[in-house]
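User: I'm preparing a small set of examples for a lab meeting where we compare how different chains pack in three dimensions. I only have the primary sequence for this one, and I'd like the structure in token form so I can line it up with the others. Please keep the answer compact; I'll paste it straight into my notes.
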Amino acid sequence: MKLLTLAAALVAAATSLAAAGPPEILVSRQLLAKAHLSIGDVVTLASDPSGTRTRKFRIAGTYEPTPDPMKFNVERIEARLHLDDLLGLTADPADPSSADAVSSINVGLPNPDDASGRRTFTRTLSSQTPFVGVVSTRDSQNSTFVVIDRFHTAIAAVTVIGSTAFLLALMVIRAEERKETVGVLRLIGISRKTIMTEVIVEGLLVAIAGAAAGVLIAAAAQHAVNRFFQARYDTTLVFMRVSAAIAMRSIAVAVPVGVVAGAVASWTLLRRSASSLVRR
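Assistant: Understood. Below is the structure token output for the 280-residue chain.
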């Protein structure tokens, strides 16, 4: 009986010692590697640069920071603490109410995609709490990406127009090289309509093959670009993604442009007489 009581006392003592140990935290993968830490290590954190107010914590695990396009070039040297531990570390001893004060609160709306609902919430909260400012994080982030999206759209438009002119010039040169063949076909009785149909079908096949090759090259470049920049900035952020919608949009633009360019270039030959094409 005495042995059982002693064992229970030892277990209770060990439990109390474990409970009295440093609180647990999570550190980012980048911090764990940069500081050469290991799970189970005891570290000291300070809330000010001078290190006057410090607390010890034990590393319970690691995590991968959420990829953020606005912070892709910033080292994610971070740690996650329990709320009470964070308040105990950052609270000002000279101000007893500092542990009860907050500087910002994130509010999640039931339908965050509803712009009118966000504006209504902002007006209502601002009218009821005059000293509280309301800022939509979604709008501030979206505005940046809207500018980037418009910039990419402008670049794409200029690229398509320039490449169309270059493609038309190549197709005209190619058609000039085949003018004698077209002239012979005209002399043996093949109509302009039949020749034009053949040119359009040929241009369609070439345009589809070119568009498919472009999609394959983009898919390969996607893998290479992501691996390079993810290794460069030590992040899991996806820098380039060729989705099915983007591939279909590219094909939908490339195929008509190729067919029209081939047809226009060939029509410049079909308008001539057969004798002028064979130089006789």
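A couple of notes for your slides: Residues 25 and 81 are 5 Å apart (CA to CA). The chain has two domains: 21-99, 152-278.

User: Perfect, thanks.
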